[in-house]
Amino acid sequence: MERFITSIYEMAGNGTDCEQRRLTMNKEQHNGNIIDPSLLIERKKRDREARQHIVLWRQPLITLQYFFLETLVKLKEWTIKLWHRRGIVMSFLLLFTMLTSAYYIEGAHQQYVQYMEKKFLWCAYWVGLGILSSVGLGTGLHTFLLYLGPHIASVTLAAYECNSVNFPEPPYPDAIICPDEEGVEGSISLWTIISKVRLEACMWGAGTAIGELPPYFMARAARLSGAEPDDEEYEEFEEMLEHAEAAQDYASRAKLAVQNLVQKVGFFGILACASIPNPLFDLAGITCGHFLVPFWTFFGATLIGKAIVKMHIQKLFVIITFSKHIVEQMVSLIGAVPSIGPSVQKPFREYLEAQRKKLHHRSDGGQVQGENWLSWVFEKLVIVMVCYFILSIISSMAQSYAKRIQQKKLSVEKTK
Q1: Around Cβ 361, how many Cβ atoms within 10 Å?
Q2: Distance (Å, whole) CA 369 – CA 355
Q3: H or E stretch including 237?
Q4: Taking the chain (416 residues) in consecutive chunks of 10 residues, what is each chunk's mean pLDDT?
Q5: DSSP labels for 324-366?
Q6: Transmembrane region positions (predicted)?
Q7: What is the value of pTM for the model shown?
Q8: Which of 21, 100, 269, 300 could form a disulfide with 261 if both were Cys (CB 3.0 to 4.6 A apart)?
């Protein structure tokens, strides 16, 4: 009996020793140096706070310097990657040379070349705007509100005014002019307008799906390599997994619900998250990458959800909102506002009337058309948002270079 009790104590002691050795190994780094995990977490937090101060309006010179240095580093990395894949690069260059030759050589094929060029540039334009909307190097340009939404609205107004959708083929907005033959009153339906803008809307949705890939690849690479990337969203995701059972606020519960839906339901869970306007979809990408969901399962569900389901929901909302009778009711309601209603209603009516005239008359080369203040405000809003987007990219790249410096200093300290 005493021997049995002694063996139990020895086993408990061995387990304690193993646990202590495991904790010690977690604290040990290169060359036997010991780094307390709590100090390391505190160090990362201080470094992140320091990086957040590197913006143009606070430290313009340092921000610009780091931005140019980060640009050079990225160019070097991309050049090395292209060199390692020089076979694929040469294939693309050969294909590009063949297409360029076909583009410039005269012949009967030129009509098809011009058609393909027009469609390709039009699709690439909207795919690019979709990518900018969802990735944006850590920021985001709201291209639906700035470009696609107004485009669908203008097509909707033109369709009801012209009683036809036979305006010039894309690219808009060179000129949306009503066709010479007059359409039949009441011939425009919701489905007719949806079909007219389907290509550009689906291309924009496909671009937003492509823009969701970086969080997926980042989390997948981190899980496969066992590394812990210094990424705020990924660290927040891991912290959420650790404290999943604890009491949380509404935002944390919403994030946890998205993570559980994607993890447990799989393809249809990803499809559900991608099919509705969802600001937390980045978390779905991180979740899929962390749990090693197959690429085509994630991207296929995201592409179907964003480019087909979600885009039709958004198109329906814009088309219904800017249909002829809804717009007239909205303008009438503006005029019913006491005291300020008529004065605010007047520029809206003038703007709509000017748009109707533009649809029926081609602008003369020497005639300068008056500019409505609503158009002027919208143009300035677009310029401000684009400038902010560019400044955000500069700051984001500068902070990325500052992160490189901080990681280099930390690795040097570990090796001392």
Answers
A1: 12
A2: 11
A3: helix 232-242
A4: 46 44 44 59 78 85 91 91 91 91 85 86 89 64 80 85 76 66 73 88 91 83 65 58 55 66 78 77 76 87 91 88 77 74 73 69 47 67 79 85 84 73
A5: HHHHHHHHHHHHTSTTTHHHHHHHHHHHHHHHHHHHHSPPPTT
A6: 87-105, 125-148, 261-277, 283-304, 316-337, 381-402
A7: 0.69
A8: 269
